[in-house]
């Protein structure tokens, strides 16, 4: 689980997200709390990209907007893949 309330954390598990076409893997590379920016190594269809996402917050928690439709992925609610 990603705990954005900590200044520094290690994401050893990452999480998977089904975007409707395929399974997308997110592994945290870096989090900058002052800029509300998180970097993920994103694996999709065998390709790995390191992408930066703005971290937003609403009543449900912290989330990023993913894809062309800006789908909300609540990173506080993600469960580690084992």
Mean pLDDT score:
84
Report the end-to-end length measured between terminal Cα atoms.
12 Å
SSE order in H/E notation? EEEEEEE
Secondary structure: helix percent: under 10%
Sheet-strand content, in percent, reads: over 45%
Please summarize the sheet with the most strands.
4 strands, antiparallel
**Residue ranges: pLDDT <50 for 5 or more in a row?**
none
Strand order of the largest sheet: 1-2-3-4
Query: Helix/strand/pairing class, anyone?
Result: mainly beta
The total domain count is: 1
How does the overall form come out from the CA principal axes? globular
Radius of gyration: 12 Å
- Total of DSSP H or I helical runs spanning 4+ residues: 0
- Tally the beta strands: 7
Structure overview:
The protein is 0% helix and 52% strand. It is mostly beta strands. It has one domain. A four-stranded antiparallel β-sheet has the order 1-2-3-4, with no helix packed on it. The protein has a three-stranded antiparallel β-sheet with strand order 5-6-7, with no helix packed on it. It is globular.
Show the helix and strand layout.
Elements: E1 15-18, E2 23-32, E3 37-44, E4 47-54, E5 56-58, E6 61-66, E7 71-74
Antiparallel strand pairs: 1-2, 2-3, 3-4, 5-6, 6-7
Summarize the structure.
This protein has 82 residues and is an all-beta fold.
């Amino acid at each position: 689980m990603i705990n954005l309330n900590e200044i520094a954390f290690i994401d050893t598990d990452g999480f998977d997200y089904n975007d409707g076409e395929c399974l997308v893997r997110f592994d945290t590379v870096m989090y900058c709390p002052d800029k509300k920016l998180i970097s993920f190594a994103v694996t999709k269809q065998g390709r790995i990209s390191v992408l930066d996402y703005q971290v937003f917050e609403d009543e449900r928690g912290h989330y990023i907007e993913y894809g062309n439709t800006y789908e909300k992925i609540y990173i506080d609610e993600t469960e580690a893949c084992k």
